[in-house]
Amino acid sequence: xxxxxxxxxxxxxxxxxxxxxxxxxxxxxxxxxxxxxxxxxxxxxxxxxxxxxxxxxxxxxxxxxxxxxxxxxxxxxxxxxxxxxxxxxxxxxxxxxxxxxxxxxxxxxxxxxxxxxxxxxxxxxxxxxxxxxxxxxxxxxxxxxxxxxxxxxxxxxxxxxxx
Length: 163
Description:
The protein is globular and about 55 Å long. Helix 2 crosses helix 4 (63-75). With 163 residues, the protein is mainly alpha-helical. The protein has a three-stranded antiparallel sheet with strand order 1-3-2. It has one domain (18-139): Winged helix-like DNA-binding domain superfamily/Winged helix DNA-binding domain (Arc Repressor Mutant, subunit A), CATH 1.10.10.10. The chain contains seven helices and three strands.
């Protein structure tokens, strides 16, 4: 069963989510770090140990850009790179104690931003937002899964492509 979606309401949802994301980033920024650096640090801290290829997939970064960001975070003492115990050719990234500490500090700061903002909403609106949480989480999971690159290349090149 497909439901009809009002395109204007969908656009409003998209815009509202983008505005919320940008506002939270501004309200909880950490001096000296970019949004991308903090996102990579957060992923590494949550996963505790992650391969560079998987990290690139999760973050949606090309390997060159990811290597640069990881290098900056490593230089700042927030993450470390090392060989995978099972495959010495693979590089794994792990948070340092300082990286875990900064991640937890930022997570608390962002949660505090939401607590303050939700508490300031008119009666019932915070509850309505929290009630929509399962649907928002399902949408986030679905969209995130759709971003993962396919590991197997399509053997048929697109029309006009040169092999």
